[in-house]
Amino acid sequence: MMSRQQLHHLSGAYVLGALEPDEVRAFEERLPHWEDMRAEVVELADTAVALGLALPPVAPDPGVRPRLLAAVAATPQLPAVDGGASSDAGRPDSAGGATDVASRRRRLARRPRRTAALGALASLSAGALALIAALQFGPVPETAPLSAPQVLAADDARRLPLPVPGGEGIVLVYSEDLDASVLQWEAMPPVAEGQTYQFWYVADDARAAGFPDASAAVLLAGTWQPGDRVGITVEPTGGSVQPTGDVVALSEPLTA
Amino acid sequence: MRAPAAGPIRRAVPVRTAATSEADAMLGRVATGDRAAFATLYDLLASRVLGLVVRVLVDRSQSEEVTQEVFLEVWQNAPRYDPARGTAVTWVLTMAHRRAIDRVRAAQASRDRDLREGIRGLPREYDDVAETVEVRVESERVRAALARLTPLQREAVSLAYYGGYSSGEVAAMLHVPVGTVKTRLRDGLIRLRDELGVTA
Question: B2 touching A, CB under 8 A?
Fold first, then answer.
């Protein structure tokens, strides 16, 4: 257990992302109760940003922008923190505290713990490893807006349970007529702060299909083909362009 | 726990230009799901994000991926952004730095960056850039502030921020105890904060 004095010396390294995970934990546990340190952390974070702004700008490849805009069109936003049940409602400090500086800073500062390996989902489909973000974020086809209730109510809707340890009633509902599927659940086990569940259609590649939201019934982005599976992984907040984290569920193949 | 209203927090964000104000305005609109505003925010900040990420990661294509991830994260988390707590630029660049560090640590085994690369000073070449006066001025200001640090402070801060190295790695590179590195990172940043003309 580090003393307050010892922890105090960590603020610079904390802001610069230079601490070890156990030190980050110790520091962050103390931070909410330590007003002058919170203020220092905010100031030093701003100072660090000044170092970043002093670097020469580098224009991204022109292809990034359209890919990103397509991805954004298919990606729901997280609800504001005072919005009650949310995708991260199970996170330890998401209730209320997220509105204060320290908590927000901690959220920003939390380093997602990526597994070094890409995990079972990627190894299951070796092609995913080779895929670049461009393929994951290919343009989303323009279709008439479809909603989760429509899929759930489709005449040809079929249900495929996804067993998830610690979860309840997690079911994929898919419709061939509508060429769409909905992932619904009664309960998902909480993920650590800085992480999120992410949904995927998985075939030879993995296509990002969205994130949980407060509705507990998410229309997956994109369409499916017979033989596709639906997977759920744990990813850093904001999601990934290809699966990087633990696989918590992988469905049987969808059939026509 | 909800924080009591903090005292005046000194903002060290260096330049308040039309661009940073516009970024603030755009992020506020992005929070409401405005995709056009998101596109504008990207146009305003993408080159700053990539400039930072590529500095840490070195590899250009990985850096473009990370940039894309950062902006997707911006989109998703925008409803939770609180403008009272800092500028959009700080929010986005802090996220970018964390993401770059995550990536570089995940790829630790393959990284071939060395001490020399880590401690190279602020770049003096601007060949990849549509250079602006603003960037040049800001760069000079930060360079001058860095020059006022002790050599150990300067090297430690540069390795940690620009190199993405942990305190332990910095300690090994500079042949000093890790506790010393942590202390120098803190007093170095505090000195930078003061040198950069923090306003109360």
Answer: yes
